[in-house]
Structures are given as C-alpha cells and as structure tokens.
Amino acid sequence: MTLHPLIEPYWINAILPELILACAGMLLILLDAFSPRMRGAFAPLAIVVFIATGYSEFLVHEGTFFGGTYQLSGITRLFDFAFLLAALLASMFAREYLMQQNIDGGEFYALLMWGTIGMMMMAKGLDLLIIILGLETLSVCIFVLVGFNRRLPVSNEASLKYFLMGAFATGFILYGTALFYGASGSTSLRGMTDYFATVDGASNPLLTVAFIMLMAGMGFKLALAPFHGWAPDVYQGAPTPVAAWLSVAPKIATIVALFRIFGAMYPVAQQLHWMQIVAVLSVLSMVLGNFVAIAQRDLKRMLAYSGIAHVGYMMIAVRVVREDAVAAILTYGLTYALMNIGAFGVISLIQKNQNDPQTLDDVAGLGWRRPFYGAALAVCMFSLAGLPPTAGFISKFYVFKVAIDAGAVKLAVIGILTSIVSTYYYLRVVYYLYMKEADELTPMTADGPFATGALIIAVIGILLIGIHPTPLFQSALDAAGALFHTH
Amino acid sequence: MTNLLSIVLWLPLIGATLLLFIPKESEVAAKAGALIFSIATFLLSLLILPGFELHTPGFQLVERHAWIPSWGVSYALGVDGISLWLVLLTTLLTPVVVLSQWNAVHKQVKGYMIAMLVLEFGMIGAFLAMDLLLFYVFFELMLIPMYLIIGVWGGANRIYAAIKFFIFTIAGSLLMLLAIIYLVFLNYHQTMVPTFFITDLYALTIPARTQAILFFAFALAFAIKVPLFPLHTWLPDAHVEAPTGGSIILAGVLLKLGTYGFLRFVLPFFPDSSARFAPLLGILATIGIVYGALVAWVQPDMKKLVAYSSVSHLGFCVLGIFAMTQSSIEGSVLQMVNHGLSTGALFLLVGVIYDRRHTRLMADFGGIARTMPLFTVFFVIAVLSSIGLPGLNGFIGEFLILSGSFKTMPVLTTISASGVILAALYLLWLVQRVFWGPITKEENRNISDIAWNEIAAVVPLVILMVWIGIHPGTFLDRMQPSVQQLLATVRNDRDPSKVFTTEFHLHHPGAALIRGQRPAAAPGVSR
What is the pLDDT of residue A91? Predict the structure, then answer.
C-alpha cells in the first residue's frame, strides 16, 4: 500500500462545494446565537448558499483526490445538483413551516447543509470508509432534523426510532465492510476491483455473508422492504419539510454508492448471483409499498409507502449495473426529488394542530379553493403515478427500458403490474382534490411566497423533464461511465 | 403551410393555456374562448383536405423532428387515409360539444372547457402520431382530462365510474407500454438502430411465440378501449355517469382509438398473430354485437341504451378489421366515423331532454313529439342513421363491413347481421315509447323545444350523415389506398406457408356498387 500525501495541490478545489456548505452552516449557527432577530433571513440565506454551491460545482477540477479516495467527475456533479435541489426545495418549504411551528432556527438549515455534505461524500467516495463516513455525517444530521420539533413527543419518538435502527444499520454496513476488507485486504474500491476481478467467489462463503450485511444496512437507509419498517413512523413524526428531504435525497446518495460498490464487485456478484438478492428486494418493495399504500389515509404515511415502492423501481435499474442504468437513476432521482418534495411540500402547508396527522380529508376540495396548490399536488400525483407527459413517466419508462434491454423482463413486468395498483391511491388524492366536497377547508397556515416558489420549480421541472428530457439524458449518458472508474 | 398538422395539434392546448388566465367568474368568456379555439382548430383541420393527395397510400404532410435521440424517439406527425377522417371527426365534435353544452354546465365552467381542449389535444395527437412513444404519450394524456370530466361534472355515481374507467384503461395501456419497449428492443437487435418510428417498425419480423405475446399485450389495451366483450363493463358506467359532453367525446372519439390502434399497430406489427387470432377477435366482436344489442333492448334508461348500442356498433368495426378484406376494413373506418356522428348526436339529444326533465327513463316520456317537434326530427334522423337506413351513413358502413366480412368469416357475419335487426328493434322501440303516442305525463306538456345552440351543434352532424349516406365516395376514395397498403403490409410480412387462404377482394360486387363507377381494381395488389 502506498501512502499519498493527504494534502494535494488542488485539494481546496476538490472539495470547494463541501467547504462552502460547511462554512455557511457554521455561519448560520453563529448568526442564530448572536443575532436571533435575523432568523427570518436564514431561509433566503440558505437558498443563496445552495445556489452558490451549485455554481461552485463548475469551478472544481475533475479527477481523483486524497490518495485516490475521492473522485470528481461529470456524473458526481450531476448527482450533487440533485442533492442541492432537494435541499433547496426543502428549505424553501421549511421557512414558513418552521416559523408557524415556532421552531425556526439557523441550525435547521445548517443541518441540511451538512447532511448534503454527507451525501456528496457518499457519491464521490472511492473508498468504503469515505462512503461510510459520508453516510454517518448524513445520519447524524437526520437524527437531529427528524426530532427538530423537540417539544412534540411524536417528533422525538420518530428521532429515537430512526436513531436506534440507523445505528443497527450502520453496524451491519461496518460488519460487511470489515469482512470485505478481510477478504480483499483493502477498503478502497480500486483494491476491491482488482481483487474481485481475479478471485473465485465460490471459494469464500464469507463474501456472500458480507454482501448480505452490506445490503441489509444499505436497505435500511433506502427504506427498501423488508428493512422499511421505520419509514412511515419517521415521516409522520418528522417536520414535514424534513420528511420531504429525507424521503428523497439520502436514497439517491445511497443508490449512487451502491452503484459504485456493485461495479467494483461485478464479476463475483455475477458468479454468485448476488444481483438476484437485489432483484428480490426490489420486487418485495414494489409489491409491499404499493399494496400497503392503498390502505393509508394519512398522506405522509401514504407517501412513505409510495416511497418504498419507488425505491423498488429504482432498484430495477441498480440491479442492471450499466451506464444507461446510471443515467436512468439520475433521471429518476431528480424527478423523484421534484415530485415527492413537491407533494410533501403541499402537505406541509396544511396543518390544523401540531399533533394532528394530515389525512386525505384535509385536501378535500383544495383543487377548487386554492387552484394553484391543488393543481401542483395533482401534477405531483400524476407524476408519481407515472403518467405522461410528466417526468414520472419518462423516468419509469427509462428504468423499464434499461431492464428490458438488459434482459430483466420479469422485473419490468412486475414493475408495470404494481404501477397499475399504484395509480389507484395516487388518483384517490386527485379525487379528494377535485371531486370531494368539503364542509370546510382545512386552513393552509404555512403558505407563503417561498413555498409557492418551490412548487413552481417543482411543477415546471416535472413538466420540463417530462416533455424535453434530451439535455438531461445526454449529459447523464456522457458522464455516466465515470461512475464505474475506480482509478 | 408545412407544419399544418402541428398547428392543428397545438392550437387546442394553446387555447387551454390561455383560458387559465380568464377569471373564474366570467363563464361566458371561458365558453366563448373554448368555442373560438375549437372552431379555429376545426377550420384549420379542414385545410388538411386540399393538401391530401388522393392516390398516396402512405403518410402525408409528415413532420419529423428528433425528440429523444438517444432512444430513437421522434416528434413525428403524419396523416393517412385511415387517420384523416378520425382527425376531422375529433376537431368537429369538440366545437359541437362546447356549443351544445353552452347552458348545460353549471359548475366550474372554466375547468370544464380547459379539460375539453386538453382532451382534444390528446385525441388529435394520438391520431396524428407516427412515433410509437409519442402515440403512447397522447394515448395516456387523454385519460387525465376524461377522468376529471367524468369525476367532477358527472352524475351521482361518478367517482366509481371515473376510477373504473381510469384503472381499466391504464391496466391495458401499461402492459402495452411494456410490449412497446420490447418491440423496439427487438428491432434494435435486428437493425442496431434505435427507433420508435412506426413505419420503421413495420418491417420487423418477430418470431411466432414472441409475436403472440406482444399481440395480446397490444390487443388487450385496444380491446379495453373499444371496448370488446368481455372487457366492456367500464363503458356503461362511464357513459351513464359522464356529463353529456363527456359521453359525446367518449363515444365519438375515445372508443375509436381502440379500433384505430388495431388498424395502425396490431395488424401491421403482428400480421401472423393477427391472422392466427382473427377468429378469436371475430368471435368476441360477434358476441359483443349480439350481447350489446340484447342488453340495450332491456334498458329503461335512454343513455344506457345508447351506451350498450355502442358496444354493439363497435363490435362491427372490430369484426370488419379482423375479417381483413379491403371492403370490410374500409367499412370499419367509415363506420368509426359514422358511429361518432350518429351516437354523438344521440348522446347530445338525450342530454337535451335530460337538461329539461332531469330524467332519462323512457317510462317518464311519451308523446313528446307534440311538444318538441323539431327535436323529434333530429332525434329520428340520428336513430335512422344509427340503425343503418339506406340513404344515411350507417347503411354504407354496415353494408361494407358485412359484405366484406362474409368472404372470410361467413358464420360470424351471419350471426352479426342480427345486430342490425336488433338495433332497429331497440332504437325504434325507444322512439315509439318516447316520442309517439299520447302524452301521459303532465310534465311533458310544456317542455321547451331544442334551443338555438343545440340546433347549431346537431345540424353539422346531420349534414354529414346525409353526405356520407349519399356520396360515400368522398370519404372512401381517400381511405382506399391506405387500406390497400395496410392489407399489402399484412400479407407481405406474413410467413408464406401460413398465408390466409382467402381472396382479398377489391371489387366485391356490393362494394363496387356503392363506390359507383370508380375503377375497382387497383395496381399493386394481386392475388
């Protein structure tokens, strides 16, 4: 093992986005402590920071850094944009929500920023340790954010639940990594690529054990069935903008890391049929998520189960370790960020009392009384259901196309059949929006210009990707190959 | 104009977008806006006719731009003899709906008009699309406005009907989506060119087993849409609950997408399977014809009666398609237009008395010919057109279908012919019970006759019924080359050992009679 000097000439350039986010987060905490009167300006400030970070993505150099453990390329840039978009939308929805719940504070946005750093590390790490470090940075932020409404027991319960189960999951990932390290003598993906290219998988049964442990831990972070149990409770208890962010961004980051890891292990994964395990988890998620979602009347719980199903769809593409699968996941991830955060966003505007759940009855008649919010939620629902001309259709189509091109026809068939089931509960929301008469409209207490702006971004984004996806596809396909390069 | 089709396609959507900015309270402005845009679309669509070349079988006025190049998807529009009249039917029926519903929509008028225009956009797009994915996008796009039209403006049981309509249709079309991906994947494997362009895919040869699976995936989607027995159960619910405008569009155009899909995709993509399973589809169509007619006969509700008569009439179209002869397919295409006109008119007129009496039960009427003379005239013309009276459009379509189908499916055609007699029975009985005889109910003594806007809506339909009935050549001449080419594609693609041992008669004596002196034999099609 050669030791590289940790400080390389361009290191600042390599982690410029992360640095901006880290410093801005600390600044926000200091501002909160020393001039709490500025709290109203924190959300705009955070928005500026996220946009500036997005811009800084163009200033970084592509290449590998820190002794070959950190890779920057076109594809990591695109995924960074997805993480930043999710954080941006979540903080736009958070502003009025936090003020209305009286829990406004600089640390909220700081934690979102630091969580985003964690995700960026997961997407760029070329070493299992870096990936785990990113994962833990992210998880710590999520623990705090989920319990951010600290006076609310349900929020505390959600935080504790996520913390306990998350700790277990991390344990599994670490065990798995340790076993891989034991076999290959390296935690770096480069070392593992070399090892897996030559080894006979059947000679070492521990490899399969390690893989299963890794998948169990990652499955937890993804809310993949059967490791999904936490998701509905946590989403329900967490502040709604947090649930919006949590339901999207960490999943994309985890999937990118999985792509990298699977790419490194591919020869043995093929030999030992590990991808069959992934396929089974995918099918379980699609079936369970979609069928259980039908029974939900609480909107956040419904979206939790729909999220389980959507991870199942994304796993169809993950199962196919190919370049166009990466492009499909990027498209799906961006789309999912827009439509799911948009849907959670509308829900976050509706609040009767702090402890009351938001049910279907709360959106009854919304479509006619608040046409913009109603239409935005309807567009998100149609997109989640995968109907053209929304982005949801293009993304699902891409995933199924990749699956069929790679010969995974059965997975695509199951995906389509469960999609039919899913249209029922997404349409039910539209039914409540436009066809159900409500005696009185649940007040929308947390609406404001930022929430409206976020919804405009979400709706335009959904329609734009749905109608003109070519630029996104092209940049994704051009860059996708880099994800499987470990050198 | 080189991009005439695009203009016709996008104009309704532009109208819908502009309507968004009209304040909710000014209902007249919304209605007027919808009327102006739908009429403008209709007039522009008429410009397709002078540019349409009579003897060209393929797509005309083609526009093609890359849309998603990495998948080989293009924005490609074109019109041929099969889609021409269906496009015009769509652009005609939309202003008819807006006009006839002028005073019939009472809530969310603006929303209703926007939904109608978006629906028109979807329908025109589906008929014009020359790219499989583009077609699919439009095919599904229509579901959303139709779901809202049934669910928001419909009758008492509208939610159940709307969801049933949606789930049925999407179940079929999602399976077709999978088949589309697989079809394109197969083509990519053979040619190494990714393409969703329809005519490129026509050249594909598919192994028998795969072809059968893909055939059923496509056929299921279209059979649900038509609807073919036993997949028709959503239709009566949707029709009865839908508002009048929704019913007119549903029967007039949406159902045609099923039969159009068979002609445009199923037959040329899967010629072997189509021939293999033609008897099956023919049997289902025949069951639909007889069953639909018998069920229509016992309906006490006029709208339900017309809905079941649609099941019966669309059965004829499917029978004609799978009989696969020149005159049966021409008859099918013509019958699609006919059904749009006559059933559209019937739904419109049933809506007229429903608005006045708030009931559709035949038992609540009787003798209203005295109070509504003008209305009675229109209703009887629509009924006669629907039952196929010579001189009106229905006769031409049904005659061509039956005489053409008899060549290849004599038994089924014979049974199906009873549908024509049954149609006369149940429709004339309806007329008898509702219009003739003494006035039995006091409420019927002073119903106001048909209003100006309803007359303006129904008159164009009546004119076309007579036109097609007297001079079908206007319509048949333009579809003939395309149908001929379709049959040639179907036969050339077919495995020669399994060629359907039937003569593809171009000049069946009956067909020639109807076409008049036009030379019946056409070059390029020999036995």
Answer: 92
Of A405, A424, A435, the CB nearest to B167: A424
* Residue B75 structure tokens: 């924005």
- The yes-or-no verdict on residue B462 having pLDDT over 60 is yes
Residues 386-445 of A with CB under 8 A from B: 387-389, 393, 397, 400-401, 404-405, 409, 412-413, 416, 419-420, 423-424, 427, 430-431, 434-435
pTM: 0.90
Q: What percent of chain B has pLDDT over 70?
A: 93
Bridge pairing between strands A63-65 and B60-68: unpaired
**B166 contact residues in A (CB cutoff 8 A):** 423, 427
Closest CA to B438 of B365, B383, B378: B365
- Whole-number Å distance between alpha carbons of A301 and A293: 8
Alpha-carbon distance B447 to B444, whole Å? 6
Q: Which residues is A70 bridged to in the sheet? A: A65, A125
- What pLDDT score does B1 carry? 63
For chain A, the average pLDDT equals 88
Amino acid identity, position B94? T
**Which residues, 6 or more positions from A200, have their beta carbon under 8 angstroms from its beta carbon?**
A271
Distance CA B390, CA A326 (A): 63
Q: Which among A436, A440, A416, A437 is positioned nearest to A427, based on CA atoms?
A: A436
DSSP B327-378: HHHHHHHHHHHHHHHHHHHHHHHHHHHHHHHS--BGGG---TTTT-HHHHHH
d(CA B131, CA A102): 54
Instruction: Give me the pLDDT at residue A8, please.
Output: 64
A-B contacts at Cβ under 8 angstroms: 77
* B140: nearest CB among A388, A416, A469: A388
Residues in B closer than 8 angstroms to A424, CB to CB, are 163, 167
Q: Is the pLDDT of residue A439 over 80?
A: no
Give the pair of three-digit tokens for residue A121.
């590390």
Residue A357: strand, helix, or coil: coil
- Under the banding of pLDDT at 50, 70 and 90, the label for residue B102 is confident
| Residue A142 pLDDT > 60 | yes
Q: Would you state the pLDDT for residue A354?
A: 65
Residue type present at position B358: H
- ipTM, two decimals: 0.89
> Nearest C-alpha of chain B: how many angstroms from A359?
19
Count of CB atoms within 10 A of residue B3's CB?
Answer: 13
CA-based nearest distance B58→chain A, Å: 28
Q: Do residue A401 and residue B181 have CB atoms under 8 angstroms apart? A: yes
Of B69, B144, B178, the CB nearest to A400: B178
Minimal Cβ distance to B167: which of A404, A423, A473: A423
Q: Do B137 and A389 touch (CB under 8 A)?
A: yes
Chain A residue numbers touching B141 (CB-CB < 8 A): 387-389
Strands in B202-284 per DSSP E: none
Check: CB of residue A71 under 8 Å from CB of residue A481.
Answer: no
Reported confidence tier of residue B453, pLDDT bands at 50, 70, 90: confident
- The answer to whether the beta carbons of residues A285 and A312 sit under 8 Å apart is yes
Q: How many CB atoms lie within 10 A of CB A167?
A: 11
- A435/B175 Cβ within 8 A: no
Q: If you measure CA to CA, which chain B residue comes closest to A428?
A: B163
B206 touches chain A (CB under 8 A): no
pLDDT at residue B297 tops 50: yes
Average pLDDT of the residues of chain B: 86
Distance CA B104, CA B101 (A): 5
Asked whether the predicted pLDDT for residue A336 surpasses 90, the reply is: yes
Which chain A residues contact residue B159 at CB under 8 A? 431, 435
